[in-house]
Amino acid sequence: MPLSNIGKIIDHVDKLSENAITLSDSVWAVPELCYEEYRSCALHSTFLRQNDFSLFPNTGNIPTALMGESGTDGPTIAFLGEYDALPGLASAANALEPPTHTANGHGCGHNLLGAGALLAAIAVRNWLADMQLPGRVRYYGCPAEEGGAGKGFMVRSGAFAGVDAALSWHPSAFCGVLPPTTLANVRMDFTFLGRSSHAAASPHLGRSALDAVELMSVGVNYLREHMLPTSRIHYAYINTGGSAPNVVQSEAMVRYSIRAETLPEMLALAERVRLVARGAAMMSETQVQDRVTSGVANLLPCPPLETLLQESFTALGPPQFTVQDKDFAKKIQATLAEKDIAAAFQQAGVTPSDAPLTDRILPANSKFFLGSTDVGDVSWAVPTVQALGATCAIGTPLHSWQMTAQGTSDIAHKGMVHVAKALAMTACKLFLSPDLLQQAQQDHAARLKSCPYVSPIPEDTFPPVQMP
C-alpha cells in the first residue's frame, strides 16, 4: 500500500476523531448492562445516520443490536463494536479513589471499543469514496459481550452473511495484534429440586436441594484433577434455597462457567460437568435441570489478517503520549498493587520497565490472554482479526474502577484513535489487494473443514432481552 494512501486514511480518521471521542464519552456517561443498552445503541445509530450509513436495527432480533452499511459492489469489510457496561464499577472521570457506590460502569472500556470501531468504519468508507474504489463497509453494534454472548446469537441468526472479513479491537494497556488465544466458554444453570421438611421434627422426609449443589461442587472439584490444565471451571450460587436453617431446602440453583482452549474441548468438558450434576442429584435423591444461558467459541486464528494488522501497527508506531498523560498514569498505578503491574507485563510477554504507559508495539505472535469473548463466534463465521489498543496505565485490571476512571481520559482517547488508524489501514489493504483477502478466506475455509463450527448456544436458548 503506497505511503500516500496510508496518509490519506490517517487523515480521514483524524478528521472524524473529535466526533468519535464525543460518542465514546457519551456512552461512558450512560453505562448499561447486557441487553439493556438502549441509549448506547441509539447514540451509535445517530452517529451512523449522521454519516450517511444505511441503518439496519434489531440485528439478529436483538433490540440493542444494529448494523450500518455503506458503499457498493466489491468486498464487504465489517467492523465490530461493543457498548455494554458492567455492574458495580462506576467511577468518576479521572478518579484516583475507589467509588463509594455500586452503580454500573465501563470497567472494560467498551465505550471506547464501539466508538473506535465505528471511527475506523466511517473513515474507511470515506477513503473508498475519495479513492473512487468499490467496496462495502459495515459496522456492527454488538450488545451483551459481558456474559451475554450477543455476537453468538447474531452469528446463529446469520447476521454476518455476506461479510468477507471482520475487524475489531479491545482496550488494553498495550497495543498490537491480539493473538487468538481466548477460551471457548459456556454458562450453565443447574437447578436442583428436592422436598422441603422440618429440619428437626422430620429431617428424614426432606431431600435437600442445597445438599445437591454442595455435592456437585465436591464432584467438580475432583473433576479439576482430570481435565486439561488450560481449561477452567468457575461457579456462583444463584439460589441457596432460603435463609432458614430449620427448613430443608427444596430448591437451589448454581451457575457454572466452563472454559477450554477449543470449542470441541469445551463442549466435551460441559458434558462431564452435566454428569457430575446428575450424580449429585442421585446421591441426594433430588431432581436436576440444566440450562445453557450463553456460550462463546474460542477465537479462530487467521494468520493472513494478523500479519496485515501487525504491519499496520509497525507502520504507525506506538501512541504518542504526553508528559501529562504519563503523570496521570503514574497516579493510577499508585492505586494498584505491584503485582498488578508485574502481571500486566507478564501477560503481554513484555520485558518489565518503569514506563507507566506503553511505548512499544507488541511483537508478532505474542501470547496475550484475555479470557473469553463472543468475537470468537464471529471468527468461525468469517475471517476475523482483533487488535489491542493502549487506553490505560500499565497494570490496570480490566473490570476495575480504575479502568472506568480512565475511560474519558486523554490516554483513552489517544489510544482509541490510534487503534482505529491501525484497523482502518488494514481494511484499506484488503480493499486494494483482493489476493490478500482471498488468502484470508482460504485459510479460514481450511480451518473450518478440519473442525466445523458448532454453536455453543442451543437452538431453544434466546437472548434475555430487557425491554426499556
Short description, anyone?
This protein has 468 residues and is α/β, with parallel strands linked by helices. It is built from 13 helices and eleven strands.
Which key features would you list for this structure?
468 residues; alpha/beta; seven-stranded mixed beta sheet; four-stranded antiparallel beta sheet; 11 strands
Description:
- By secondary structure, the chain is of the alpha/beta class.
- Helices cover 41% and strands 17% of the residues.
- The chain is built from 13 helices and eleven strands.
- It has helices at 3-28, 38-50, 110-131, 150-156, 209-223, 263-284, 303-316, 323-333, 338-348, 375-381, 401-405, 410-432, 434-450, and strands at 54-57, 66-72, 76-82, 135-142, 165-172, 176-177, 184-193, 232-239, 251-260, 287-296, 384-390.
- The protein has a seven-stranded mixed beta sheet, with helices on both faces. A four-stranded antiparallel beta sheet has the order 8-9-7-10.
- β1 and β2 form a beta hairpin.
- α1 (3-28) packs antiparallel against α3 (110-131) and α12 (410-432) packs across α13 (434-450).
- It is globular.
- The model has no long low-confidence stretch (mean pLDDT 95).
Tell me roughly what share of residues is in helical segments.
40-55%
Oligomer: single chain
Largest sheet: 7 strands, mixed
What structural category arises from helix and sheet content? alpha/beta
The proportion of residues in beta strands is: 15-25%
Discrete helix count:
13
Query: What spatial order of strands do you see in the largest sheet?
Result: 1-2-4-3-5-11-6
* Low-confidence region ranges: none
Distance between the termini: 46 Å
Please provide the ordered H/E string of secondary-structure elements: HHEEEHEHEEEHEEHEHHHHEHHH
Please tell me what the overall shape is.
globular
Can you give the mean pLDDT? 95
Task: Compute the number of strand runs.
Answer: 11
Radius of gyration: 23 Å
